[in-house]
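Dear colleague,

Thank you for sharing your sequence with our group. We've completed the structure prediction you requested, and as agreed, I am returning the results in plain text so they can be pasted directly into your records. Please verify that the sequence below matches your submission; if there's any discrepancy, let me know and we will rerun it promptly.
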Amino acid sequence: MKKITIIGSGGAGKSTLAQNLGSILHIPVYHLDAIFWKPGWVPIERDSFTAKQEKICGQDAWIIDGNYGATMDRRLQEADTVIFLHYRTIRCLYGITKRRIQYRNKTRPDMGEDCPEKLDWEFFHYVRGFNKTKTPAIYERLSNLENTTIRIFKTPNETRHFLDVVEKENSSNFIDS
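Please find the predicted structure tokens below.
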């Protein structure tokens, strides 16, 4: 695993998983939200966003978390591993609510600078409808990938187990080297 794309609904824990994997595997982590959002919740120009992603994809190793459907295919094609956090809607709604409380009046570490955490109805409805409206297209995209390891986790426990296995394998490889 050297080029990892992590996708899933808002509130699923993509950024947390990316950070944890990055620490275990010693691979740089890129949060698409931090690239896309300029201070004050101003979106970056599409060409700039695409160029920044291209630069990252050209590196030898990376972990990229985020959906951004317009540029997802490029990340999926470059990745050797795709992780889809396909959690239940209620779990993701809990996640966005929890993080809104946790980061009240603060900017998350995985977010663009000077973008304090917010939870508006538009984002709430996006997360609420994600499994119905976005997930079928994600599965379609994943079905077209070749030579890519695809991991789909349906619960946080499955994700934690995966991290435990990766950590154990990585620590034993480190000791053996």
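Summary note from our side: Residues 36 and 42 are 8 Å apart (CA to CA).

Kind regards,
the structure core
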